[in-house]
Fold each of these.
Amino acid sequence: MTRLVYLLQSIDTTQTIDIDVVSAQSAENPVYYVQYAHARIHSLARQAAAREVERAPLSEVDLAVLVHERELDVLRALASLPDTVLAAIRARAPHQVTGWARELAAAFHRFWHDCPILRDDVDDELRQARLWLVEGARVGLAIALSILGVSAPERL
């Protein structure tokens, strides 16, 4: 966790760290916020398994049904990962990956709040597309946290 705290800002700036914030288990703590998004995704997978909801093969899922603004926010964040990593490498600026992880976590938390997945009133076609969107977010967060050398917990 300490590593990510140091990677929140550019190495060219003076580091200011609020110990109370980075030790809190809340949305105010950027490390916890990103790790919580990853753990929340695993929680959803456990809930889906308990309800015997399985993700269909991607080739059988129509992702075009993802039209809600929150869904699109997650997709846009995911699409920007390769360019973000490349820019961070070129500029030797790992804080750019940290910023991206925070953006994806925020987009995912908003999506989670506004776009139900396992509720009975969600159409199966939409549920399947959302399950794949969640899997994309999980992979994206895991990649970013791995790049930064930070754990990607399945539970918090």
Amino acid sequence: MSPIRRAIRWIGPLLGGALLLAAGVFAVRWGLGLYYHAAYPLAYTALIDAACDQKGLDPALVYAVVRTESGFDPDAQSPVGARGLMQLMPDAYDWVRMRRGEPAEGADYEDLYDPAVCVDYGTDMLRLLLAEFGSVRNTLCAYHAGWGSVKSWLADPQYAPDGRQVEQIPFADTRDYVQKVERAMEIYRRLYPDKMN
């Protein structure tokens, strides 16, 4: 057998194997892309995008909070009473209403199941917490554990050595929550780079 024929006998299967490998890699990447787009959807875009534009919020933050809090289920209710897409507690709803100068009386907590209401008040809460605490991490801690918890953590060098940034989150559930939202923000930015700023 000539050297050329021998080379062809080896090159053919190698090229075939390389093509199969490339097709497999493509299929896995395509499948993962479909999975991630399904797991990290863009839902309620008109409401969320308008609120982010109006309030100067990063869309990746809001989409990540909604995904983590309710999985985009407007009827979600937690065992402790948080409601709607952004899982606002009645006292958080009252706090935002007070900060907006709205009367305390007349608040209907069932309104939190309306996506427009929940996104409006939930994004206002994020905006107010960002203004108060100055970082996304502190804001997420306050959104989950409460304003008072973060104030006390910032005053304790064990949790906030510089007094400005919570480095050690003492509540395990809040620590897990913050990690989930931060991870979801990264994924949203990677999946939708043109939409997230």
